[in-house]
User: Fold these one by one.
Assistant:
Number 1:
Amino acid sequence: MKLKLIISSLILASLGAASADKKKKTFGDGTLPEFLVPYDVNEDGELDAEERQAARAARKEAREAKRASILETFDADEDGKLNEEEREAARADAKAKIEEKRVERFNEVDLDGDGGISLEEFSAIPSIAAMEERRPESAAKIFAKMDQDDSESVDQDEFLDRIRRSHRGGHSKPGPKPGEPGTRPEPKPKPEPKPRPEPKPRPEPKPRPIFRK
């Protein structure tokens, strides 16, 4: 009887530990992204249910504050909403800020400030270095796709083009322009279909003779 109680206690304890683990959340290799670290109150490297709730509430509050800031900045007619022209101005401003951040990122990677990123500088990016450890030579393959002019250096335009295409879902190197070597010949235009002949009119039926008794 005592043995059964001990076994039951061990099973319940293991189930309790498993359910507690399910309530916690880890990311990637087990480390938290930088923006979630402030919510890890107990500093255990994970977010439990209460910490996740606090993170969601804070992010929701940040989104609402951002919407209010956009409305205050671009609501030119002060009617409490954005019309099409005001929304377009807000989108253009957001796009410009994104481009500024991308240029800043390029300058951070360009360690020697010569206006181009070498393979060595590219491989020093933490995420690329981590990937290189798992898959050797992967950094060189990605770098070769970015280096569109084969100059062994990625300039700012090539770097930004890669980021833009990645966000659009395209990761391949742009192909050659029409007419350059390696392109497929342009398809010949299809001939226009010949017009069908109009159907001949049917002859009118002859009247039947009337027979009288």
Number 2:
Amino acid sequence: MSAWKAYKALLTKRENLQKAMQDPRVKTTIRAQMASPAPPLGPALGQRGVNVGNFCKEFNTVTENIKNATILPVTVHVRPDRTYEIEIETPTTKWLLMQAAGIRKEKQEDDEITGKLSVKHIYEIAKIKSTDKAMIGVPIKVFNLKFFFGMKCPFLNCFKREICQMVIERAAEIGIKVQYEDLDPDEYKQFLDMRREVVKQQLEEIAKQEAAKLLRI
């Protein structure tokens, strides 16, 4: 056998091994009613022998009753015969938080406040997330939010598996300030109006930086 044929045989064995070891699950996020064959979904399903066109049609039909463009975590379990099962979870925590706060952009600076929510909002979002398969058996809250909120608790890490705390931590990453008191609608409207101006300036600055990069090329 020539060296070239031996090399091709080795590549074929490697490809077959990779296919055999390939995870039969595809975990991704898809917007409700907006599945398409475009990457990364199309290639990921195609590599596993799934008819991508049929999948997109089925997914978009299944999510017809969900608000259009809602970001949904999805797991596709592909069987050996190339049939599949679609597992759709509740919208991502980030999407729920940003929708509740009425914002479209995450924070750019560490101390930037992009929006505000009350603990009531947090609790309602936690209740939604508690229905996810991964959250079965996880308590929504195991302590009084009013007692612990804003306090320096050395044992806070003990509550990592408590859904309310997970949601609060995700809110902090986005820049959403969580407060115990209810939000004043008029004050919050003024805050959002100011935020729109800040975001506009941030986008203009980003555009200037991108333009400057192009000029240097």
Number 3:
Amino acid sequence: MPADSAAVLPSPARPIGRSRPNIHDHPVYRALPSDAQQRLIAEGVELDLSGDAQTPLDRDHLWFILSGVLGVFPAASDVCVAPIVSGSVYGWDHALGSSGSGADVRPLLDVRLFRVPAAAVREALGYDWLSRFIALQAVQRLTFLEQEAACNASHRVSERLAKWLLRLHHGGNGASLRLTQAQLAAMLGVQRTSINAAASNLQTRGAVRFSRGKASILDADSLSNLSCRCGAA
């Protein structure tokens, strides 16, 4: 499930011709009015955070995810319940003055971010534009949730696990995924025993290797063939 204030896109951004993506590569930034783009460039800053960082992102800024993956963690919990992948934006509700859902958002993998003060975004885009955009995002989130509900009801756990591993793999630009099977079980809403069986199946097929809280994608094409492909671009 996507974060409440994340811009959910059908697939992560894949920068072309740059080893280090910047804000100009971001699909949401490119969709903004040119005067707003100039204001964001003037007010914003790019930064890198390690996947081991434990301090959650603050609610005074809007965060464009340039590469890597953020995780959504319920208050006082170490279990990630949703990823926010590259090409998304976290914190639109902050720009409207809302404190959000109360969940912590912090790196799940190493991330490169573009951070802009929420007040600057509100001034650059205006309340009406933001309200319309967030309403559009709400419709997009509802569609996403409907697709996920249908997927949960009709596909095997191994297919759904393959799908989520691919999402994280692409969102993290191929980096190893520091996720325990308990976290994966929470993200998919299934028992850990079901995840254990599904993970064993994917590993036996040579698509993934699991070891000590880390998942390494060995064959993305094979993993794609084993996934349900719901929501694939």
Number 4:
Amino acid sequence: MGYPADLLSTRTVIKPGLFAVIPKDGLVNNVLPFLTGCRTSIVASPKMGASFVQYVSYVEPNGGTNAPFANAEKEESFLYVISGKIDAETEGKTYHLTEGGYLYAAPGKGICFTNVGDAEAKILLYKQLYIPCEGKQPYAYSGNVNEIAYSDYDGMANVHIKDLLPVDQNFDMNMHILSFEPGGCHPIVETHVQEHGMYILEGEGMYRLDDIWMGIKEEDFIWFGAYAAQCAYGVGRKPFTYIYSKDCNRDVVL
């Protein structure tokens, strides 16, 4: 990084247990023993109050895992390709993923991956503990967001959503793409039991988190916990789009 060009400043805001906003320029690399040829930052973990762990990773050509990611008992996992070409494997099957491609691995199965392209790849990794439900069993699932049509979000023609995983009770989580056209917004200030991990894929927005409004832009990461008030407006000249996680289909355990 070298010497700073100006006074040190940041847009980072961390409110443990409530929310976090982490811009790209504040990230540091974490050394992880299961990865080779990767620059990886852990952007969410239980240390801030999240119930999951999320990573942003830049993978060199031929870089990737040297041991499975998230194959501990009850750990379910997800890989999303922001850019580049990744071969990802779970349960003995290999999936060829390009930009917008993704893979979900069932609990305890883990994911192995390699950058098979000639350029650096950028990916998101995610893991959490699966919550069992009698008679339900999740399964490996792969797709590409570029092959999924948008649906209007809550009946609004200027906000659009894609579901990346099947909407059924075998899964206790989902991943979504939410996109606001300039001027689009949530219909209400949402307050709910679910938490989200969000990575901004493009554009700019104004986001309310708890009682703070913040400007948000491409490559920012946001986490917010249960019952943190939240909503957003899309601003600027292009869509404000992000991928986000959501826990679902399970009751609260006492």
